[in-house]
Amino acid sequence: MAEKKVVFVSVGTSALSTYMSKDMVTLNDETIRRYWAGDDAYQNLVDELRRQERDGQTHEYDHQKKHVLQKLQRAIEQFKKAGPSLKAYKNLSAELASLKAMELAMASGIGGEQYPEFGKFTKDDRIYLIPTDTIEGQLCAEICKELITEFFDLSEKECEILSVTGLQVDSGTRLKDEGRNALSDTLKKIISDSDKSAERIWNITGGFKGLIPLFTILADIHKPMKLVYLFENSRELLIHDMIKIGTVQPDAMRSLNVASSIGGL
């Protein structure tokens, strides 16, 4: 096991969708009732966040960030008291739960002895959060960063948010034309600047499933790298070592195409 770790963490929006507040501070009671009617509450909140972003406002962004942080901070305290039970894991966001599972993961040696797969996070490690290029993605990344530094006793220097233009799932064309190349260039620079002895890991537990093929190709191009995933109803971390999987050529990025508008994306 390498002494240092470089960990890329795809960030989804489960923290926001799970813990968002019904008290939307910038809206009147009638609008709140309309927003929380039916099954569209989360999408309505996202629409409001995007509207305020266009208008240069941050009221709802700030409100939801404060609310979700408080909820997850309580979940972290419960985890510390109760230990790594399945219920304790489920109360955390996908990103926090899977990073904690990395710390607790054990591997078996040739003689059956148990040893830490990755070990605890230290000041020598670097965690890079990769949210989507959306206002809700940025919000969840900021929440994750604040909680990661608290949960794992790291400084802001050891946990960084990567802003990747075009990395989203609303537009396949934009992902193809902007997102994939921007992410590839960002990874290439970080890996080039990192300690060559550091163990490279991509935690794909959070984020959107539609981006996993892109993440997998990039992980293979930049191997040795391990992909890790924590299923929502499990405490066992799935680990895929890309060095043991067939090679993907760098130009495989071109194979990520977008379907035509007729019956396509």
Instruction: Give the beta-strand count.
Output: 8
Give the CA-based shape: globular
Order of helix and strand elements from N to C terminus:
EHHHHHHEEEHEHEHEE
Strand content: 5-15%
Describe this structure in words.
The protein has 265 residues and is α/β, with parallel strands linked by helices. The protein has a domain at 5-14 and 92-255: 3-Layer(aba) Sandwich (Rossmann fold), CATH 3.40.50.10770. It is built from 9 helices and 8 strands. The strands form 2 sheets. It has a 6-stranded mixed beta sheet with strand order 5-4-1-6-7-8, with helices on both faces. Strand 7 (226-230) and strand 8 (237-241) form a beta hairpin. Helix 4 (59-82) runs parallel beside helix 7 (135-151). The longest helix is centred in the first third of the chain and has 24 residues, at 59-82. It starts with a strand and ends in a 24-residue tail after the last strand.
Question: What key phrases describe this protein's structure?
Answer:
265 residues; Rossmann fold; globular
Structure described in brief:
The protein has 265 residues and is an alpha/beta fold. Helices cover 44% and strands 13% of the residues.
